[in-house]
Amino acid sequence: MNPNPILKKLGFQNTDRLVIIHTDDIGMCHASLAAFADLWDFGLISSGATMVPCPWFPQTAAYCRQNPQVDMGVHITLTSEWDSYRWGPISTRDGASGLLDAEGYLHRTTEAVQQQADPAAAQVEIAAQVERALAAGINVSHIDTHMGSVAHPRLIPAYVQTALQHRLPPMIPRIDQAGYQALGMDVETAAFAAQFVSSLEEQGVPLLDQVTGLHLDQPAERIEQAKDALSAIPAGVTHFIIHPSIDTPELRAITPDWPSRVADYQAFSSAELRNFVRNAGIHVIGYHALRDLMRSE
After folding, report:
1. Is it the case that residue 192 has pLDDT exceeding 90?
2. Which residues contact 284 (CB under 8 A, 6 or more apart)?
3. Domain layout of the chain by residue ranges
4. Are 133 and 107 in contact (CB under 8 A)?
5. If you write DSSP's letter for every residue of 163-224 in order, what string do you get?
6. Domain 5-173+208-296 class, CATH top level
7. What's the whole-model pTM score?
8. Are the C-beta atoms of 106 and 147 separated by less than 8 Å?
9. Tens of pLDDT along 54-92?
10. What is the dihedral of CA 143, 148, 150, 153, to 10 degrees?
11. Are 17 and 110 in contact (CB under 8 A)?
């Protein structure tokens, strides 16, 4: 694809490498918020996104009100994946919405919500999560998606419509038809998706060149993993995902991937990694820059 027009609009060259170091799942549990607060003060991360339906969202909102400069988006949450720690939608308890599983919570898997959710009900839920974050006093910087659940033809229109309504950049990569086919789409769907992305860019919606990050199944040598992954970032704008949490009994009880989450916290609070990023020839930005650009178009 052609160079991302965002680069020059932000004062960079087409060959520059920009990265948003993004922390997912804020407010999923207490450990995620505590880690975000520490890492934001440390200065290496540049953005995060909160899960509005989750139990620690109110405390996340309180933190954001006290620290309005933080770059916090809404992690649109249509799934509830853990076995013994669950949450439901905030807009409905109606089974006809297709948003609920047999236990009355959000579906555990992306596939289930993509297949069963009524698109109109999903649109109401997506909008409700953003509106609750705004009403709670969060200076919302963007929206993205938990477990990629909105990345489906039945759900992506509601996601994009909500982003445009509030003039918030959505986490959407700039992928051409061949790229979408490589992801498993058929030719017709891939052509539609590529045209849709091109239309958004023509409207001045800031888009990403890559979405990548650290996997949650490899906690060992996390600093070296991060160095390798950040070194490989291409020219353009990359959304780089990590899942930092402090080590608590609550976190260990919720998820078996807790070692990787703790490792992310430790790695991104290390002076070694911070110094590496500063000298790696990459530019760390946040979503506030993209939001301000979008609102100035």
Report:
1. no
2. 18, 19, 20, 21, 44, 46, 277
3. 5-173+208-296
4. no
5. HHHTT--B--B---HHHHHHTT--HHHHHHHHHHHHHHHHTT---BSEEEE--TT--TTHHH
6. alpha beta
7. 0.96
8. no
9. 999 999 999 999 999 999 999 999 999 999 999 999 999
10. 130
11. no
